[in-house]
Structures are given as C-alpha cells and as structure tokens.
C-alpha cells in the first residue's frame, strides 16, 4: 500500500509541474460553472428569441451525462499522459521491478485516479447538474462516467507511444461519449447499432429513466477495459 | 542465492532460453556473456520476476520467481541498460521517490550521491545530465534499499573510459560489501575483470560456465612469439609450456640475436570464439 500511495503521489507531483495537466484538473469546475449558469441563461435567450417554451431544457439530462463524464475523462487523461511519459522514459518498466510492481502501478495510475474521479463527479454533479436527480442516479452516473474515463485512458495508453500521439488518440476517443446522445435523437431500433458503446447505455438509462440500463453499461465497460488492459500490458 | 534448474522460456513457439541450469552463491559476481539476442537480458528478466511464463525453476532468495510478491523486490536492486529516470525531476527527487517505494529504511541520499561524485549535481534535473552521470545515478538508485542482490544489465555500455572505470570500481565496492551481483554484458574485458564466474550464452543456451581464469586455461596456454634477423626478419612462436624444448629459441638467446620476444595469453574473447564459434557483436 505504501508503494501504491507513493506512486499516486508521484503522479500528483507530475501534474503540478505540467501546466496542461494542472489545467485539465480544473476543467470540470470551470465547465460546471459554465453549464450551471451559462446553459440556463442561453435557454432563456433562445426561448425568447424563437418564441418557444423549451429549446435546450429537454436535453438537460444529456448535458448532465456529458458533465458526469468530464471529470473522469480529465483525471484519466492526466493518468494516461503521465503513463505515456513513464513508458517513454522507461521508468514504468523500472517501477515493475520495485515493490510497486505491475498491479501496484495499475492501481496507482488508473484505479486511484478513477476513484478520485468518481468522488469528484459525485460531489460536483448535484452542484452543477441541470436536472434534479436521486442519490442512486448520481452514483450510477458517476460510476458510468468513471468507467468511461478509464476506457479513454486505456485507449490512449494502449494505442499511442508518446504524448503527441496520446493527445490525438484522446481527441478521437472522446467521440465515444457521444453514444450517450443516440437514445435522445434516434428513437428507432437503429439506435442499437451504438450498443457496444457503454455511453449509449448510460444515455439509454437516463432517457428511459430506469437504472436497469446501467447494467449493460457496466458490462460493456468491463469488456472494453479487459480488451484494452490486455493490449496495454502486452505493450509494456 | 540463485538456483536455476532446467529453465526454458519462449516468446513464440520457438524456444528462446533452453534448459539452463546454474547456481550463484552469495557474494559472487556472476556474468552472463553473449552476443546481442543471445538471451542474456531475457534471463535477467526471468530472474527479476518480469517474465513469469517460464518452464523449470528459477529461485532467487528462496522465492520461485513466477510466484514473487512485492516483498521479493525489497532485496533486489536492478540497474537497466538504459536510463530509467524521471527526466523532469532532479537526481535527489528521483532517489527520494524510488526510496519511498520500499518498506526498508533507505540509505542516505546525500551519501549515495557522494559515492558516485554527483553530490554537487543532486539538485539538477536529470535531463541536464550526461550519459555517464545518468548511468551513475541509475546505479546508485539500485542501491537505495541496500539489496542483497544486484542485477546489472550492461552497466558500462556506452560509457567513456573514465566513467567505465568508475562504474567498475563501484561494482567491485559492492562485491566487497558482500552483495551478490548478476552482470549481463557483451564486454569481455569487463567480465574478465569483474566476474568470479561467467556463463557463455549463445542461442538461449549456456555453452560454458566457469571462472574467467579457468576458461582461459582450459583452452590452451599462452604462446611466446619471438623475432630475429637472418637475411631479413623472421618470427616464430612456441607454446609457453614447451619453451625449454625450442632449440632455435635457446640458440638465439645464447647468441643474443633476438630482436623481440613477448608472450600472449588468449583473452576471454578468444575463448568465447573458440567455444561458441561466434563473436560478441
């Protein structure tokens, strides 16, 4: 446990020294402020401009989903960038022959940041969320968002060999979160084309207002994480 | 300290390490010698627990390597061939972090830096270090937790003569403290100078295993080559152990006609080539 704690703290040191990573850490709060105060203001402007009772408000739940994925995406992006740098400098390989080991390294770089992301999301969602949600909803969304963040982090580390490639993969992999929008806009069976994406099931759970759909979200996340983790471990 | 019994390993269907058996005693410097791709680094990876899918047995400090736990690493110090340091951190920060991973009380960082002449550069970022400085820092990092076993992979590779000498002296100093050292190298001079015993590895197999002295002696003694003038310069050679039977040499000595005379022992490199039919490149 001592080694895992040290490994995690080392990542925080890295984060503090890198402006981009520090900024990524602040992004959820800044985005939360923008969503909480900007979106209702925009809604008021748009409804008045187009003389309609609602323009954006039917999609407040969708915006909440995206927000629930933001903190984990940012936290896990930071982990992925640090891991890529460690792979590049070969320090990751060295850490495997210390008491930290492979499992400890994965815990320090992915599990602990994911746990922190879960807690931060669960704390920020009631504050910055646009729709009223139960505690079970908040915890489920936070868990779903966290798993989505872990998938993004593993995609980055499994498919890129340096930070530059990592940035490109991060942009591409962030498209995965748009699976959540599909149930809101595509009502026919065709929407199930996106069913391999965990974000689709999270969107489905919120849109249908039933947490049962979180089960396939967790299951598909597990499949993605297993596949990506195996690829990552083969690589390092 | 180390007991390897019928060890085999493969990355693919083809065997990469085949049926290796050897032991390393406490306090010994044991060298793995062989050309690139011979299996030396793979063998070190097995012994440091990085590769677990091997056949046979590889016991280090009484622990089967594939069944290692995190405690396994409390008594092993590893020095990779390449620099594996946080370039953005200073030497002190690097050592402080790596020391924090061990349960053992770490050796004082300032003392360690002093032993490798880096005490004045301890607060410099590693990215500003030369290759030799990084190699020295890598080495002392492996000593942070005072391990009983040191695994060194090509420790002098790419170093200038001064840094190479410093590195070899540091290795010998660790041996004097009673540490067991596994040394992987393709530098025969280093091996002959440092190792108590060496194993020649080619194609994933141990071709020979003995002390450098015994290996050299086993393949024939030194020869004496001499030259003299007699209608131009001539030269002849004679095995050292048959010197008294060389009438021509005796005659030339008695007539004081020798132009030059020198003996030449075979090097470990010559022995390696004799035994394996390979060079070390």
Assign an overall shape of chain B. Answer: globular
Q: Tell me the quaternary state.
A: heterodimer
How many helices of chain A in DSSP terms? 10
Going by CATH, the homologous superfamily of the largest domain in chain B would be: P-loop containing nucleotide triphosphate hydrolases
Largest β sheet strand count, sense and barrel closure of chain A = none
Distance between the termini of chain B: 31 Å
Strand fraction of chain A equals: under 5%
**Secondary-structure content class of chain B:** alpha/beta
CATH class division of the largest domain in chain B: Alpha Beta
Helix percentage range of chain B: 25-40%
Let me know the number of strands of chain A: 0
Specify the structural class of chain A: mainly alpha
Number of helices of chain B: 9
Calculate Rg of chain B over CA atoms: 23 Å
Strand tally of chain B? 13
Report on the biggest sheet of chain B.
Answer: 6 strands, mixed
The CATH architecture classification of the largest domain in chain B is 3-Layer(aba) Sandwich
Give the overall shape of chain A, derived from the CA principal axes: globular
Report how far apart the termini of chain A are.
22 Å
Beta-strand residue percentage of chain B: 25-35%
Mean pLDDT figure of chain A: 90
